[in-house]
Amino acid sequence: MSSRPAPPHEPVLPAAQPPEEHTGIHVGSPSHAAAGLPAVLSSLNHVFGQAGVVRGTEALLKLNQKNGFDCPSCAWPDPDDHRAPAEFCENGAKAIAAEATTRKATRDFFARYSITELAAESDYWLEQQGRLVEPMLLEAGGTHYKPVSWDQAFQIISTELNQLPSPDDGVFYTSGRASNEAAFLYQLFVRQFGTNNLPDCSNMCHESSGCALKATVGVGKGTVRLDDFAQADTILVVGQNPGTNHPRMLSTLQAAVRKGAKVIAVNPLIEPGLLGFKHPQEVSGMMGLSTKLTTQYLQVKVNGDMALFRGIAKALLALEEASPGKVLDDTFLRQHTTGFAEYATLVRQTSWSEIVDGSGIAQEEIEKLARQLAGGQKRVISCWAMGLTQHRNAVATIQEVTHVHLMLGALGRPGAGLCPVRGHSNVQGDRTMGIFEKMPDAFLDKLGQVFSFNPPRHHGYDVVMAIKAMHESPGKVFIGLGGNFLSATPDTEFTATALRNCHLTAQVSTKLNRSHLITGKRALILPCLGRSEMDYQSGMPQFVTVEDSMSVVHMSQGNLRPASDKLLSETMIVARIAEATLAKQTSVPWTQLASNYDLIREKIEAVIPGFENFNERVRRPGGFYLPNGARELTFDTPARKATFIANALQSVQPEPGQFLLQTLRSHDQFNTTVYGLHDRYRGISNERRIIFLNPEDLRGLGILPLRPVDITSHWQGQTRLARNFLAIPYDMPRGSAAAYFPEANVLVPVDSTAEQSNTPTSKSVIITVAPAASA
Q1: For 8, which DSSP code?
Q2: Rounded CA gap, 737 and 730, in Å?
Q3: 659-771: what fold?
Q4: Is the pTM of this model over 0.85?
Q5: Domain 105-201+426-528+568-611: which topology?
Q6: Domain boundaries, the chain
Q7: 492: helix, coil or strand?
Q8: pLDDT of 584
Q9: What was the pLDDT predicted at 775?
Q10: DSSP secondary-structure letter at 294?
Q11: Cα 317 to the chain's mean position, in Å?
Q12: 3-class SS string, 165-188
């Protein structure tokens, strides 16, 4: 009897998830305030340790200065007037240390390590290998990246793109760190190629804010300026952890508190950066003395924010009934809004038991907050971030926040307004430039007129749609202008399969990350200049522009010597891809534009309203503000008024024994970039693979602190598993849980997204927790 030969061994694919090993955790007590001397020491240790004293100092002195470069970290605005010599935070210092590092991932490095070996390392280890210095190619079936010339790289991309059956088989992703100039050229190229497939990181963060605000006040951006904080009576900080994610915001909050403002925190976890601030540029702060920031801290349930703001609205209506004409702004409501009567009826019909059960906040606490909002001049600012935007009901929740402002007339006047706090430094600018899968016809009309072509009109893929498209049918081409797509997106294994289905994946990057290792059949690494580096084109120095969270457009010009003479700017990389791909199909002088960024800005001015005299105005110190209709009480809605939207109250209610998980950052990371293994403010050292739970919930599970657990997420009959996390008791509501991304992204179902915005619900993951099978 003959025997069949054994099947060939399947090749070992590089690991899509970070390794499951623990690194030696130490747990201390959480802090009671943010910043101070530890933040200064951490900043200097990162910068001088990686860039050296001379190069590091050169970078820090130009960071966020009017004649310097914009921080590549968060999008918190710079002061309009005076800038401190140290106009940066610990977060920004870490970002600059990473970019200005003298460490380099050379061709010898890639010859030493296979992609499978690299994928077995942690995200922190990958980040520590230094700057990418020349283009690299991974051939089909290859195990190692090898050097390739820029000409060869652009030819590979153009060949793969032009062989696609349809332009819609190309996926063109953008990170929020791309400049306005690079983003504008990128979207122009993609649309001339014939598609609107322009997913970007907004799809995963503030897309819900844009949807909610566009429908209610007619503009998808915030309505406040930095100086409004100094005039506010009350500042709500909701679903946001500024101490870790936007540290420079703390000095703004401190100044507001010193002028009499009350800061109200709404967050499931007790976050030190919301409790107090030790200003590192004040003697008292360096001595460890903090300014108390928060006067009321509402530990809302995960996904309980919509119920909370419905409760605030209900309490405001009751206060108005008790004191007619003294709480609600009747003049504002009559002149500038529509739909209030229907909304008020819905609010009155919502019971306090629904509100308390949904939010986890007592009625008395909600009424106390309502009295604070109704007092004074009703100068109220509401700030929020991912804690509101990444839920199934995210759009409706943000509209509830907006409704409270409309009831009080807290919009379009000093000290009042709506403030979605953006993450990446130019994520808002990229959208302004046209990085969006469904730009309005007015933009496309003007783009086509200026560049003499007919832009495609059918909507393209957002991030989730792109993942599904790549997963369902092989052969697509993925190009990433910055970012770490695999680690930023939900459902890690599903997304990994989607990327592996591609013919080609190409990443424009400064540092090594996991998206370089989970690739299509072929893969390219295209190394670019960092924002801190000098950018010379045709022998002339160039600068780029960015837009911050408050619609200020300003210049950014690096001052450091580039990490390698083989680096190209993002703008030039885009131009040369476009030139190689479109060839004679385009009349755009791509490399001419990329050789003089003033020429790109002239085209931006011709296409996008608000950029009149762009080159002149952006050269003025501090830049200029873009128009904001809602701030001027001009509402671009169908009714030409701010609109109340009567949404049914929604909340996610896990079954008994289940928890609602939110993913979040540690203090030693920014988005997917892991700078270290510590979470200083929460008292965690040397570990990332952890899950925070209420102490009573841990006891109920019979799990001791620091014991390894496996986490299972549940969605429409499907389960996803994350193994070997350490259980940490933390001050948070019962039934809630939290874990760091990207390690926990494997639990986020790709099909679980916010209504309207299609944002992954990374803050509303239903899970169960059990002792680890490997324990």
Answers
A1: P
A2: 9
A3: Barwin-like endoglucanases (2.40.40)
A4: yes
A5: Rossmann fold (3.40.50)
A6: 32-100, 105-201+426-528+568-611, 207-420, 659-771
A7: helix
A8: 86
A9: 63
A10: E
A11: 35
A12: CCHHHEEEEECCCCCHHHHHHHHH
